[in-house]
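User: Modeling request: complex.
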Amino acid sequence: MALVSLRNVGKTYRSLQGDDYVAVEDFNIEIEAGEFFCLLGTSGCGKTTVLTMLAGFEQPTTGRIEIDGRIIEAPGADRGVVFQGDDSLYEWLTAVENIEFGLRMRGIERKERRDRALHYLELVGLKGQENKHPSELSGGMKQRIQIARVLANEPRMLLMDEPFAALDAQTRLSMQSELLKIQASTNKSVLFITHDIDEAVTLADRIGVMRAGPASSIKGIVDVDLAQDERERTNDRFLDIYKTVYGMIREEVGIAMSRQEKAAGQGA
Amino acid sequence: MSKAISLRRQGTVKSAGAPGWNPLSISRGYGGYLIGFASLFVIWHLAAVYLVGSALFPPPGQVLAKAGVLIWSGVLLEHIAVSLRRILIGFFLGSLAGIPIGLAMGSFPAVRKILEPYTEFFRFIPAVAMITVAVIWFGIGEESKIFLIIYTTIFIVILNTAAGVGAIAKNKTRAARSLGASSFQVFRYVALPATVPYILTGMRLAMANSFVTIVAAELVAANEGLGKMLWDSRLYMLVDDIFVALVSLGLLGFVIDRLFRWAIFAFAGRYSPVA
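Assistant: Request completed. Predicted assembly structure:
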């Protein structure tokens, strides 16, 4: 059985004007234990909405979201969330205190939680930075702290919402390869959201390509059966998969643009 | 100790040891303050002696001499102590009540809606206007002054605290929830520390208000205090005494505000302070 399943999930938001906006409709995916699943789509297609519901921050309007066969009703320590920006870090705590936050909340004794936090601090390559506050660290380092903070809590799965989108290209590349290493060594399931095809092909075991919003759903799922050393932008098989995904995304961009033109035509 | 403070200290030490004068040392150390204050007194002196030349505008030397006399006799310190005591009691009681109310208003929309009519109504009635009823209700003793300081403190602390809670990034509380924190833990370990800089800023503004209020209240109805001293001096045309009281108010406010800024940096420097 899959670790996580989303079945016929829909989410409708009501705007302040009282209009309904259907963000996601009839959305179905399953994620296996230990799998790295990328959710890819154009901006505004509802990727984050799916993650928000899976995290338990919001409830779906229709359908079921289950982890281990239990319906998700609230946020929980079994699903660690890595956010896009750095505003989820606690500025008043040091790096290591941020990382041990979850353990502290769950009543793990001081010595043990500090040891575990330092272990994960080292795992994400921040050894020696433990006593710095977030304001003293670079963007890439802050994202490492977020990842370590989630890992230290030992969740069943990681939910990552475009965690590297705000980083420069070079830092992003090194973060991607480190994330792959960490995922290989911890064997956590990951739901990784991105709008970057390249990033998705580099990281994922499977890529779920989403349709353009509104009322978005899964357009198709692409298997990425690449070995670790084939995940290079110059590799032929990498490029084949890239082209497949690119074709799907381009179709969706076309649909989104024609919808916009239609809407503009109606307005005139 | 926060980084900001230690950096500042280093800066001061460096500039003190640096050979020659450089503009950076002014911005870092206390040299700038010294120059600022010295120029204030120089301008005052020049204006009093050469520009006005009237007994109604005494030069700083004369005021300082009078201050010495009043300090020696104990009168000045007595007035200062009385005013300061009123301010501190009212200010701490007002903050003590205002912080939890502000936290509750910021955390729970229902509480906010119930209490907002109070805060939005009373914050437009200045404490100075409330002196009238305060004296009628509590007499001219300590109670009326403390009531007025509480009044002038509480609303500004409530509003700043509530605004601070409202300004917490949603991702901070969401992260805490998904790391396993209970609602109470989110409040205790995320909302509260994230709001500290706003609370301190609110208290700092309230302290400034307290000075305005206490002088006005003591002018109208009091037996001692700096405001009373001002009023009596005016009655007997003791211009030097008026200036001593004014300078005392300025210095007292400045010192207390510096203490606050220091506290904000020391305790909340790493909370990315807004001060």
